[in-house]
Amino acid sequence: MSIEIPTEAKMKILLVDDDDDFRWATGNILSAVGYDVPQAVNGREALEFVEKDIPDLVLMDYRMPGQNGLAVAAQMKRIIPAVPIVIITAYGEIDSAVKAMKMGIYDYVTKPMDNNVLLFTIKRALEKQDLLQEVEQLRTILDERTTLYKLMGNSDPIKKLVRHVEKVAPTPFTVLIEGESSTGKEIIARAIHDLSREKDGPFVALDCGAIPETLVESELFGAMKGAFTGADSDKPGHFELAHGGTLFLDEVGNLSLSVQQKLLRALQERVVRRLGGIEPVPVNVRIIAATNQSIAEDVKLGKFRSDLYFRMNEFSLKMPSLKERTEDIPYLAKKFLDEAEIDLKKTCSGFSRETLFALGSYHWPGNVRELRNMIRQAALLCDEDAPIQGQHLVFTAQPLSPDQRNPDAFYATLDGEKSLKEIVNDRIEAVEKEIIGKVLKEAGGNKSQVARKLQVEYKTLLKKIRLYGL
Fold first, then answer.
1. Count of CB atoms within 10 A of residue 206's CB?
2. Could you give the CA distance from residue 12 to residue 87 in angstroms, rounded to a whole number?
3. Which end of the chain, C or N, has fewer beta carbons within 10 A?
């Protein structure tokens, strides 16, 4: 019997067996007909493989040291539920193979194997188009996850954030992303779009805080010719431009109450009316909103409509600040240094230990953008082929003093009443209060000047001034 294998794509079969000779022989058979055959010697290696790559099919022995094939398959189904698994079993273990099929294993083959039966079983499993589509979606998720880790780091807060992105992206939920400036809110919004049902449509972003209030309405909903001075032609708004895709409303908390009312109506009715227009324009748009301030607090203060807040907050994501994920700093610093070396056509030999310690001790009011700017400037200042030293770092705010950086300085507060995280947060808040107070005094109480100098949003500064009683 001749088995024809599709050649338009080289499909990947993960072969899992502790027998070296069996893996060699079976791997050669599968490779000869055109399959790519990565191999694992036990369940642990197989599970590590599918965490990083997704095969089209798994061919796994039932008897292996440690966990048997069924136990490994059960864990694997939770990671790659759509990938068909074929179990290899001995004649005396057919009852176990039947149980395996009841738990979702695609099929089984028995030892000694008939090569044609094996190839036919694999071919039949791979021909299931619905499975292939689900596998492709899994690969898309894995690619996006890898991209986010490359852009943002691999800390526990980022892993949690990525898991939530993967959960909400395929749904129709409106998403509200909250977090400080420069924490990566637009990166997350684009990731949600790329994993959504609207991924083939446009991704349109509007910074609501950067547009004059008089123009926000026309930017959102469009305008007809002559609707206002300067409207020389009909202009579609961002809702129309995003039709069939995603509209990302950044800094949505800056919208006026009148625009909020019209935004709510557009979300509810799924139509917009251009300024000066009469006819409603249908729009099919997925909304992702972002803010660097507490919308819930603005609702209490009457600055934001509660009905719009609950309409946008079907699912919320909290962006961790850089000081909340300091374990990502060495990775991000190296990433930004690599980029700077390319731009500057210059080579630095990494970071000194002192430099890494200083970076980890700083409180990063400007978050990732501040880190990137600091590393680029340090790369410019350091000598060719030399490491970046502490003197090359130019902090925009007062860094922690050597005593504050020393863990010994915290021991006096370890009374068993507070956790390490609470103690560290208290110390950070104390330093933050000291810095704001000092700069506020230097600026003669000019809060706008303080906000510019510390590179924080004006509203965020006002909240911290109230919080610390300055």
1. 21
2. 16
3. N
Classify the phi-psi angles of 158: left when phi > 0, otherwise alpha if psi is within -120 to 50, otherwise beta: alpha
Strand-strand pairing, 281-282 and 271-272:
antiparallel
Sign of CA dihedral 131, 135, 138, 144: negative
Contacts of 402 (CB under 8 A, 6+ apart): none
DSSP 270-319: SEE--BT--S-EE---EEEEEESS-HHHHHHTTSS-HHHHHHHTTEEEEP
CA–CA separation, 378 and 194 (whole Å): 34
Pairing of strands 57-61, 85-90: parallel
- On whether the CB atoms of residues 58 and 14 are closer than 8 A, the answer is yes
Closest CA to 247 of 314, 192, 184: 192
CA atoms of 80 and 356, how far apart (whole Å): 38
Whole-number Å distance between alpha carbons of 377 and 385? 16
pLDDT digits (tens, 9 = 90+) for 54-69: 888 999 998 888 888 8
**Phi then psi dihedrals of residue 468, to 5 deg:** -95, 0
Which domains occur in the chain, in start order? 13-127 (3.40.50.2300), 138-320 (3.40.50.300), 323-396 (1.10.8.60), 404-467 (1.10.10.60)
Which pair of structure tokens corresponds to residue 409? 């300085």
List the beta bridge partners of residue 177: 290, 317
Q: CB-based contacts of 130: which residues, under 8 Å, 6+ apart? A: none
Contacts of 117 (CB under 8 A, 6+ apart): 109
How many residues are present in the chain?
470
Q: What is the pTM of this model?
A: 0.60
387-435 pLDDT, tens digit per residue, is 999 889 888 776 655 444 444 444 444 445 556 566 666 667 777 888 8
**Opening angle at CA 424, ends 372 and 325, nearest 5:** 35
Neighbouring C-beta atoms of residue 235, cutoff 10 Å: 17
- Residues 205 and 299: their CA atoms lie apart, in Å, by 24
- Long-range CB contacts for residues 324-330, cutoff 8 Å, separation at least 24: 324/157, 325/153, 325/155, 325/156, 325/157, 325/158, 326/360, 327/153, 327/155, 327/156, 328/152, 328/153, 328/154, 328/155, 328/158, 329/356, 329/359, 329/360, 329/371, 330/356, 330/359, 330/360
Closest CA to 46 of 74, 9, 8: 74
Q: 43-82 in b/e burial notation, b at 16+ Cβ within 10 A? A: beebbebbeeebbbbbbbbbebeebbbbebbeebbeebeb
- Helix axes 43-52 and 69-79, enclosed angle (nearest 10): 10
